[in-house]
From TrEMBL:
This is Cholesterol oxidase. Pathway: Steroid metabolism; cholesterol degradation. Pfam families: GMC_oxred_C (PF05199), GMC_oxred_N (PF00732), NAD_binding_8 (PF13450). Belongs to the GMC oxidoreductase family. GO terms for biological process: cholesterol metabolic process. Its EC number is 1.1.3.6, 5.3.3.1. Its cofactor is FAD. The keyword Flavoprotein applies. Residues 492-546 form the Glucose-methanol-choline oxidoreductase C-terminal domain. It comes from Mycolicibacterium fluoranthenivorans. Keywords: Cholesterol metabolism, FAD, Flavoprotein, Isomerase, Lipid metabolism, Oxidoreductase, Steroid metabolism, Sterol metabolism. GO terms for molecular function: cholesterol oxidase activity; flavin adenine dinucleotide binding; steroid Delta-isomerase activity. PANTHER family: CHOLESTEROL OXIDASE, FAD-DEPENDENT OXIDOREDUCTASE 2 FAD BINDING DOMAIN-CONTAINING PROTEIN.
Length: 574
C-alpha cells in the first residue's frame, strides 16, 4: 500500500516509530488481524535509494527545523554523542546487522550508584522464545566461511578467528548477521538476485533484493537490499496483513480522551511535506511508543504532566551500552577491511558477573573511506601528486628529457596503500554504568542528558587494554579513541534506557511487557525500556522484547483476541 496515503481518523493500535520495536509490534498485531497504524517521521528508503554522492549525503540528516528530513539523526549531549536513524525501518537501515542475544548472566548488574547488585525483572527465560522467532524470521546467518566459500574469505575475519590473546576473552567467533549471503537455493553467492518474500515488499513490487556484495557499506544503507532491515521484513509483513503505515509523519504529542468506542488517546501528528508541514490528529485505543531511546523518552517527558506521571524513574538509567570505538593501525599485511559486511566476528569477555563484561567486534568500511584515509595521511597522496606535477614542470623549465610513462610516479603517489591496508576500527560495547538521566531543559522542548564516562572509567580502561591485545594480535598498534580519551566523551550508536522497566530494587516506568505503570493503554517498546546496558548489540533484544509485548497485548482480556490466522510466514526456509 502507498506510504503517503491519508491518515485514518482513528485506529485500534497506533505505533510511533518503525525501528526494531515498532516493526515487530506492528507485524505481530497485524498478523493477528488487529487494526494497526504505524507513524514514522522519516522517509522510506527502498534498496537503491541510499545516497552515496557528497550532494546526497550532505542532505541525509534529520533536522526538520533546518529543512533536513534525511536519515542520520546525530545528537550531541554534554559528555556523549549519539547516532540514531530516521526513516522507515529506523536504526535497521544503518545498522551493522549483528543480532546477538543478551548474555544470560548479565540480567544481574551493579545498581546505577554502584552500591549494590540488582536483578532485572526480565530474564533470558522470558526472551528465549522471542529471540528464536526473530532470528528465524530474519534468517539470521553467519558469513559463509567454509573452505569452499572462497568469495567470502576475508583476511580480517580469518585472522581475528585465529587469534588467541590471553586477555580473559573467549576466542573470536563469527557474528550472527541479519544479512542474506545465500541465494534462493541456499548456496553462498555474492550479489545473487533473490526471489521476493511471499509477503511482498512495503516498497512495492518494483524493488528487488540480492545477496551481499561485500561492499562494506552497511552503515550507509544497503543499496542491494541484502540486509534484512525492518522495512523489507517485519514492516512488509505488517503491510501485507493490512497495517496502515505512514512515513514523514511525526508524532508531536498525545492527550487522554475517552470515547464511546474505547479510544483513550488523541495523538497529534505533524506531516512533513517538501518545504512545509501540516498537523493532524488520530484517535487510538492503544498507543505504543517505539520512537527509540531518545524519541520515546522525549515524548513521554513532554507528556509527563498531562498524564500525571510522577514516577521518578522516567528519564533515568540512560547508558551508551558501553560503546567505544578504537583502532588497529600498522597491522601486518592487508586486512582488506573495505571488503565484507561491516562486522563479521566478535570476541566475548564474560567479565565477573557484576561488571566489565564486554564484546569487541571487527569493523570494515567502504572503499571510499580507504581512499580518504590515504589522501589525508600526512605527506599522503595529495602532497605526492603535487610534488610530481612540480617536478615535471621543473623538468620543462630546465629542459630535462621527460619519461612519458607515468606508471612508477603514479605508483609512488598511491604508495602501496599500506596505511589503509593495515587499518581497522574495533567496535567495543558492554556494561558501562547506566547512571545517565534524560530530562527536558527549562524551555521544556530540548532533551538533555547528563551521562558521563566518569563512573564507567574502569570498564573503559579494560576495553582499551583488550583492544590493544587484539591490535597486537594483528601485528599492529592500538590507537585509542582520542576524542573519548582527551575530551572524556564517547559516541554511542546503541543508546538505551530512559523509560526503564523494574528491577528487584527499583520500580521502573514500565513492567516487563512494556506497559506504562501509570497510563492504561500506553506501552513503550524500544531501546528505552532497559534498566541498564544490554551488553552486546541491542537490536535482537529490542525485537524480542517487542514480540513479547505484542503477544501480551493480544492476550489482554479487554482488548480481545482475534482468531490467529495460520502463521504462513512464521517458518521461512533458512
Ligand atoms: C551505525 C550503526 C550501526 C549499528 N549496528 C548495530 C548492530 O550491528 N546490531 C545491533 O543490534 N544494533 C546496531 N545498531 C543500533 C540499532 O540501530 C538500534 O539499537 C536500534 O535501531 C534501536 O531500535 P529501536 O526500536 O529502539 O529504535 P529505532 O530503530 O531508533 O527506531 C525509532 C524510529 O522512531 C522514529 N521516530 C522517532 N521519533 C518519532 C516521532 N516523534 N514520530 C514518529 N516517528 C518517530 C525514528 O525516525 C525511527 O525510525 C547500530 C546503530 C548505528 C547507528
Amino acid at each position: 500500500m502507498p506510504l503517503d496515503k491519508e491518515l485514518p481518523p482513528d485506529t485500534e493500535v497506533l505505533i510511533v516509530g518503525s525501528g526494531f520495536g515498532g516493526s515487530v509490534m506492528a507485524a505481530e498485531l497485524a498478523k493477528a488481524g488487529r487494526d494497526v497504524c504505524v507513524l514514522e517521521r522519516g522517509r522510506a528508503y527502498p534498496p537503491g535509494s541510499f545516497p552515496r554522492d557528497p550532494a546526497g549525503v550532505s542532505l541525509n540528516f534529520w533536522d526538520p527545523a533546518a529543512g533536513l528530513h534525511g536519515m542520520f539523526d546525530v545528537w550531541s549531549f554534554d559528555n556523549i554523542d549519539a547516532i540514531v536513524a530516521s526513516g522507515l525501518g529506523g536504526g535497521s537501515l544503518i545498522y551493522a546487522n549483528v543480532m546477538l542475544p543478551k548474555d544470560e548472566s548479565w540480567f544481574t548488574q551493579p545498581t546505577p550508584d554502584g552500591t549494590a547488585t540488582e536483578q532485572w525483572a526480565l530474564t533470558r527465560r522470558h526472551l528465549d522464545e522471542h529471540y528464536g522467532a526473530v532470528t528465524e524470521f530474519l534468517r539470521v546467518q553467519t558469513l559463509p566461511n567454509g573452505p569452499a566459500d572462497t568469495a567470502f574469505q576475508l583476511p580480517k575475519t580469518t585472522r581475528f578467528l585465529q587469534m588467541r590473546p590471553a586477555d580473559g576473552g573467549e576466542p573470536a567467533v563469527l557474528a550472527p548477521l541479519a544479512v542474506r549471503f545465500r541465494d534462493d537455493d541456499g548456496l553462498p553467492s555474492v550479489g545473487a538476485p533473490l526471489t521476493g518474500e511471499p509477503y511482498g515488499s512495503v516498497h512495492g513490487p518494483g524493488y528487488h533484493r540480492r545477496t551481499c556484495r561485500l561492499c562494506g557499506e552497511c552503515d550507509l544503507g544497503c543499496n542491494d537490499g541484502a540486509k534484512s532491515s525492518m522495512d523489507t521484513t517485519y514492516l512488509s509483513l505488517a503491510d501485507h496483513h493490512g497495517a496502515s503505515i505512514h512515513t514523514r509523519t511525526e508524532v508531536i504529542g498525545f492527550t487522554p480522551i475517552s470515547t464511546e468506542e474505547g479510544h483513550l488517546f488523541d495523538v497529534r501528528v505533524r506531516v512533513h511535506h517538501e518545504g512545509s508541514s501540516t498537523e493532524r490528529s488520530v484517535k487510538a485505543k492503544r498507543l505504543v511508543l517505539a520512537a527509540g531511546t531518545l524519541g520515546s523518552t522525549y515524548l513521554l517527558l513532554r507528556q509527563q504532566d498531562t498524564f500525571n506521571i510522577d514516577n521518578g524513574a522516567l528519564g533515568t538509567r540512560f547508558s551508551g551500552n558501553g560503546d567505544y570505538l578504537g583502532f588497529v593501525h600498522s597491522a601486518d599485511g592487508d586486512l582488506a577491511c573495505t571488503k565484507g559486511p561491516v562486522i563479521t566476528a566478535y570476541r566475548h569477555y564474560p567479565g565477573d558477573g557484576r561488571g566489565q563484561g564486554m564484546y569487541i567486534e571487527d569493523a570494515g568500511y567502504p572503499a571510499f573511506a580507504a581512499w580518504l584515509m590515504q589522501l589525508g595521511q600526512a605527506g599522503g597522496m595529495a602532497v605526492d601528486a603535487m610534488r610530481m606535477v612540480l617536478s615535471r614542470k621543473l623538468g620543462d623549465v630546465l629542459g630535462r628529457r621527460k619519461d612519458p610513462n607515468l606508471a612508477s610516479e603514479i605508483n609512488r603517489i598511491l604508495k602501496d596503500g599500506s596505511f589503509s591496508a593495515g587499518f581497522m576500527p574495533l567496535l567495543g560495547m558492554g556494561r558501562d554504568r547506566p547512571d545517565g538521566r534524560l530530562s527536558l531543559d527549562d524551555s521544556g522542548a530540548v532533551l538533555q542528558n547528563d551521562w558521563s564516562v566518569a563512573t564507567s572509567e574502569p570498564y573503559f580502561d579494560a576495553m582499551r587494554t583488550r583492544m590493544a591485545a587484539i591490535a597486537s594480535g594483528f601485528g599492529g598498534e592500538f590507537t585509542p579513541n582520542l576524542i573519548a580519551d582527551f575530551f572524556d566523551r564517547v559516541i554511542t550508536v546503541h543508546p538505551v534506557g530512559g523509560c526503564p522497566m523494574d528491577t528487584n530494587l527499583a520500580a521502573g516506568v514500565i513492567d516487563t511487557y512494556g506497559r506504562v505503570r501509570e497510563v492504561p493503554g500506553l506501552r513503550v517498546c524500544d531501546g528505552s525500556v532497559f534498566p541498564g546496558p544490554i551488553g552486546p548489540n541491542p537490536s535482537l533484544t529490542i525485537a524480542a522484547f517487542a514480540r513479547r509485548s505484542a503477544l501480551n497485548l493480544l492476550a489482554e482480556p479487554d482488548f480481545g483476541r482475534a482468531p490467529h490466522p495460520a502463521d504462513e510466514f512464521g517458518q521461512p526456509p533458512t
